[in-house]
Amino acid sequence: MKALAVSIAAAGLLMFGAAGVGATPPGPGQHFDCTDGGNTSCAADDPGCVSNTRDHEKCSRTIGRALAKAFYGVIKCHITQVGKRFKSSANLNGQAQAEENCEEGNGNGHSVKEKLDDVLAMLAASGRCDPAQLSAASAREAELFGTGPTSLDARNAQFYCDPGDPIGDDDSGSVPASQNVLMCENTVAKNVARLHVFAAKCHEKMNHAFAKGQDFDEETCEETDPVSHRGALDKYNQQRDKLAALGICPSCLDSAAIDSLGAATLAEVDGNNGGVYPCNLGP
Question: What is the pTM of this model?
Answer without folding.
Answer: 0.89
